[in-house]
Amino acid sequence: MALERTLSIIKPDAVASGHTGDIVARFEKNGVKIIAMRMLKMSRSQAEGFYAVHRTRPFFNDLVAFMTSGPVVAMILEGENMILKNRDLMGATDSKKAAPGTIRADFGTDVEKNAVHGSDSPETAAVETAYFFTACELNA
Ligand code: ATP
Ligand code: MG
Asked: Which residue pairs from 48-53 have beta carbons closer than 8 angstroms and sit at least 24 positions apart in sequence?
């Protein structure tokens, strides 16, 4: 196993419903080290750039509207096998189908309003962590 970093975003639905602290606690209780954290409201162009891989999908415009609807909390998580471990803690994309005890099952609503984002590979983790944080903002 390797020490990895991944980008986590607490999405506007979970920030608005008051679950920022619950989600941060979920990570900390699972031994995850948070090495960067910032609250921000994404602009339309920032959200479009972040989700560029999905730009041809039918849900793209709704996704951008959702992600810019309120503040998010972006974090860099560090730990052994962190990319996959975060995806396990998050649960399946659709909150209605996510396994009990996962973040999306507990704090999300549906396939769009699903509480959290997590990078899905070492390549996307590298791009996405750099999208939100500069090297000087990492507390490693
Ligand atoms: P994320 O990238 O946010 O961690 P994911 O990797 O589980 O989620 P993706 O397929 O990358 O899922 O989709 C990105 C996001 O787009 C989802 O988290 C969700 O908010 C939204 N989304 C995905 N599929 C749909 C859909 N069928 N209808 C509406 N929104 C969707
Ligand atoms: Mg994804």
From this structure: 49/131, 50/128, 50/131
| Nearest Cα residue to atom 22 of ligand 1 | 112
Q: Considering the entire predicted model, what is its pTM?
A: 0.97
Handedness of CA 137, 14, 7, 72 (dihedral sign): negative
**CA 118 to centroid of ligand 2, rounded, Å:** 7
What is the C-alpha separation between 80 and 84, in angstroms, rounded?
Answer: 9
> Can you name the residues that pair with 9 across neighbouring β-strands?
74, 117
Residues 91 and 105: beta-carbon distance below 8 Å: yes
Would you call 54 a catalytic residue per the annotation? no
Query: pLDDT averaged over the chain?
Result: 97
